[in-house]
Amino acid sequence: xxxxxxxxxxxxxxxxxxxxxxxxxxxxxxxxxxxxxxxxxxxxxxxxxxxxxxxxxxxxxxxxxxxxxxxxxxxxxxxxxxxxxxxxxxxxxxxxxxxxxxxxxxxxxxxxxxxxxxxxxxxxxxxxxxxxxxxxxxxxxxxxxxxxxxxxxxxxxxxxxxxxxxxxxxxxxxxxxxxxxxxxxxxxxxxxxxxxxxxxxxxxxxxxxxxxxxxxxxxxxxxxxxxxxxxxxxxxxxxxxxxxxxxxxxxxxxxxxxxxxxxxxxxxxxxxxxxxxxxxxxxxxxxxxxxxxxxxxxxxxxxxxxxxxxxxxxxxxxxxxxxxxx
Length: 326
What we know:
- The protein has 15 helices and 2 strands.
- By secondary structure, it is mainly alpha-helical.
- It has a two-stranded antiparallel ribbon with strand order 1-2.
């Protein structure tokens, strides 16, 4: 029995799978075009940017932190690569410049959180506005168009009929899943999320781990930003601004605890897929985007309440079992 409990699917995993299958069923019943290859590929073409940003956020949230600046980091990196590309810079150097900017953003966030000790929500709320302001200054508040056609491959090409950006999302998800499950860095992320002081006393270099976590998140936001620039052939300062709350919602829906110490990137990608399917169903049905926001918010509230109830039940069971052992 103990082995079954240990290795069987978690309650959150069962709920997530049920929600995923339920959305597919609803979409199929609502519109006959929902499961067509064309529509499925359309979903896969539009969701990777949010998915890549969300798995980056997952890494930070596992540590018990958060990165409210991830959306504006994406916009800033998009603007920087757009400016480099339109100035005549080759694609590879332009991407490297935007990656350097992403690393700088991650280092600033990590320094505020890990070195100075500012709470992650406050620190990244400040950098959110700072990065957004920097993007507006660089772009002068305008959209950057005339992106070279050679750059379109990143967001518009397909391999064996599958959008390239979807393949990038899958590869990044697999890499991060392996890191979280099988590498020391992943174990340290969970240790910090469970108890940062205890992990420091046990020999974990918390500052280095947090720097790596925030830099990883920013780099993934940069990748997402460049994919979107390539897909829509335009760079704007507000490109990732609207992605933040849906991404956090997908992370929580995917089973990552907002308190840290529990989670994974696989569940996050399923969460992003669920939100992408909901948006797609509503678009097919001609429902206003205002209702899409309402649906996203409602799901987030329900998931947070559900997670809190299940966590409280686990705590009660531990207390009861502890009292029995005494």
